[in-house]
Amino acid sequence: MAKLTINDEVREIDVDPAMPLLWALRDHVGLTGTKYGCGAALCGACTVHIDGEPVRSCQIQVREVVDRKVTTIEGIAGRVAKAVQTAWQKLDVVQCGYCQSGQIMNAIRLLDQNPKPSDADIDDAMDGIVCRCATYVRIRAAIHAAARDLA
């Protein structure tokens, strides 16, 4: 039995402690916003925040997040998260949407750390979150729009 704090709620789940967090979230907690993309931490679709930092949930075991705070796309909140979500909708960023939870999780962390990112800052922060539909220009524009809304 693992006791995890997910989206500010303590949950006890009966899983193998070596199970990747991704599968515990999706299959045992029912939070399916975090996507499986590659299983090798290469695409970023499975990104969650652990203690506020973006982490690929396909490569971290449940045992590694006990006593840590896990935030999924379903649990994002606050001023920065709202600005990012609003910009994403306003600029119609999503095409297929598969990578978007990972994109949004990274964008939130970027703007938490750097409220006025340059294009290079955005490219660096978003590097490794693969968008199969290549909406990178809209993603960058949405991050800039969110930053303006936060100013």
The CATH architecture of the largest domain would be Roll
Averaging pLDDT over every residue, what do you get? 97
Distance between the termini: 44 Å
Gyration radius (Cα, Å) is 15 Å
Topology:
Layout: E1 2-6, E2 9-13, H1 21-29, E3 47-50, E4 53-56, E5 69-71, H2 79-90, H3 100-113, H4 119-126, H5 136-150
Parallel strand pairs: 1-5
Antiparallel strand pairs: 1-2, 3-4, 3-5
Features:
five-stranded mixed β-sheet, DNA polymerase, domain 1, 151 residues, single chain, 2 domains, alpha+beta, Ubiquitin-like (UB roll)
Q: Explain this structure to me?
A:
The protein is of the alpha+beta class and 151 residues long. It has two domains: 2-75, Roll (Ubiquitin-like (UB roll)); 79-150, [2Fe-2S]-binding domain (DNA polymerase, domain 1, Orthogonal Bundle). Helix content is 38%, strand content 14%. The chain has helices at 21-29, 79-90, 100-113, 119-126, 136-150, and strands spanning 2-6, 9-13, 47-50, 53-56, 69-71. Strands 2-1-5-3-4 form a five-stranded mixed beta sheet, sandwiched between helices. Helix 2 crosses helix 3, helix 2 (79-90) crosses helix 5 and helix 3 crosses helix 4 (119-126). It is globular, with a radius of gyration of 15 Å. The model has no long low-confidence stretch (mean pLDDT 97).
Quick overview of this protein structure:
The chain is α+β, with helices and mostly antiparallel strands. It contains five helices and five strands.
